[in-house]
Amino acid sequence: MAIIEATSCSYAHVAAAIAAASNGDTVLVPSGVATWGSMLSIGKGIYLIADGSEITNGAGATFLITYDPADYDLNQSFRLSGFSFIADGNYILRPGVDRNAPFTLNTKVRIDHNTFTNIGATIKGQFIYNNGTLYGVADNNTFSGSGYPIAHTGGGGGGDNESWWRESPQNIFSLGGQHYFYYEDNSFVIAYDGGTLLTDGEYCARYVFRYNDIDQRADNTYSMFDIHGTQGTPLGACFGAEIYGNDINSGDKTCVVLKQRSGQCLVFLNNGTGTKAPYNIAYTGGFDICPSDDCGLKVTHNTYWFRNRSNLTGAIWADNVTGGLNCCGLTNIPTLGRDVFSEGSTPAVTIGTLANRPETCTVGQGYWATNQNTSDLTNFVGVNPTTPISGTLYVCFETNVWTEFYTPYTYPHPLRGEAPIQTMRQSMRVRF
Predict the structure, then answer these.
(1) What is the pTM of this model?
(2) Cβ of 88: how many Cβ atoms within 10 Å?
(3) Displacement of CA 72 from its chain's centroid (Å)
(4) What is the DSSP-derived secondary structure letter of residue 308?
(5) For residue 14, what is the enclosing H or E element?
(6) Among 238, 147, 240, which Cα is nearest to 189's?
(7) How many CA atoms lie within 13 A of 389 on its CB side?
(8) How many alpha carbons lie under 13 Å from residue 363 in its C-beta half-sphere?
(9) For residue 342, what is the DSSP state?
């Protein structure tokens, strides 16, 4: 595995170093300032490690970097680390492109210790435009200035969207598993007023946001997180999302955290700091239609919201669930207490130790079994939490029978066990 050092952080020198690299190699980019006028297209599984290099997008670069493996069957590792990216309305990073299922899962992508800044203060120009074809983790990054920093178009947005629901392994969806892209221990500052959101979800999207600091001081006219419903061809339903352990500061603004119109979502143990309590919404939009296939999986179902607090020790967030879709043999999807369950629903989600779990239960009822005291979220939320969230969600799928439903995925994400970037920089061997 070679370690190759680019002569400078200019586009030409970085592109030359990547051209000389093979799968498994590391390309080191020295500090400096450069404007890239073309997109850097990477098809190899390499580590691209910078020393704080400041890169601005030029007029010809809609995306600064696209990583699309030339051979998905190899499931190569890819890492992007140590850059300072500055955008003026354009996109920065596109991990993967639209693909129809089936194809080999690629689970080894890491985006870490970068700074993403939008100087145009516009809702346009995502920092990470995630097509959902690659799984892994984005950690220890700082995102600021954009009103829409992360996009999730899912797979097949430009092709056969429904193939992701038909074909394995893309149709494998397991809460608490590795079939996601994780965003953890990042800092987000969303400063643009008007229609802002942190990320959307469409075209079979799925994502996990956990242990992030989120400063949402702008007027939030939509929501922070979004999960689209089925809107015909090609815009299909999403698989779902997990949102937990985040520290959200909305100041004096109203903050809708999640708008959900399909799939399964778990939203729990998040904190909202501000003068107005955050809340989630589950509903059916005017564009949503009844899915023709996999109906029960594509509409909002088996969704659990619990122990989200205001100001760390304050009130539990209120529910906002409005049914409007009749299909799958059901009316008024979603309905609180049937499709969405919370501490305020009937049946409800309750919290306590495993030893205190009720002996009897009603279908749909949830129980978060934990030894942690969740009356104060101070140690459980935000970047690098003192005490990561620990527990298991049990769900009653059959009267008086509890089933283990969900346990959070390993934290920190296993990909974060790689060598520190400082060690890589000290091992420079080949110069291009």
Answers:
(1) 0.96
(2) 16
(3) 21
(4) -
(5) helix 11-20
(6) 147
(7) 32
(8) 5
(9) -
Residue 211: DSSP 8-state: S
In order of 27, 65, 81, 100, 413, the CA distances from 7 in angstroms are: 11, 19, 18, 38, 33
- Residues 192 and 121 sit within 8 Å (Cβ to Cβ): yes
Element (H, E) at 298: helix 295-298
Two tokens at 371? 């030894």
Tell me the backbone φ, ψ of residue 416, rounded to 5 degrees. -80, 5
Q: What is the pLDDT of residues 352-411, one digit of tens each?
A: 999 999 999 999 999 999 999 999 999 999 999 999 999 999 999 999 999 999 999 999
pLDDT at 430: 44
Q: Into which CATH architecture does domain 3-345 fall? A: 3 Solenoid (2.160)
- SS3 for 15-52 is HHHHHHCCCCCEEEECCCEEEECCCEEECCCCEEEECC
Please state, in angstroms and rounded to a whole number, the distance separating the CA atoms of residues 334 and 349: 17
Q: CA of 288: how far to CAs of 101, 230, 390, in Å?
A: 24, 5, 36
Q: Mapping DSSP to helix (H, G, I), strand (E, B) and coil, where does residue 355 land?
A: helix
CA angle in degrees (0–180, nearest 5) for 274-277-282? 135
How many alpha carbons lie under 13 Å from residue 283 in its C-beta half-sphere?
13
pLDDT tens digits, residue range 157-185?
556 778 899 999 999 999 999 999 999 99
User: Could you give the CA distance from residue 276 to residue 256 in angstroms, rounded to a whole number?
Assistant: 10
Distances (CA, A) of 261 to 158, 276, 283, 310: 21, 24, 6, 24
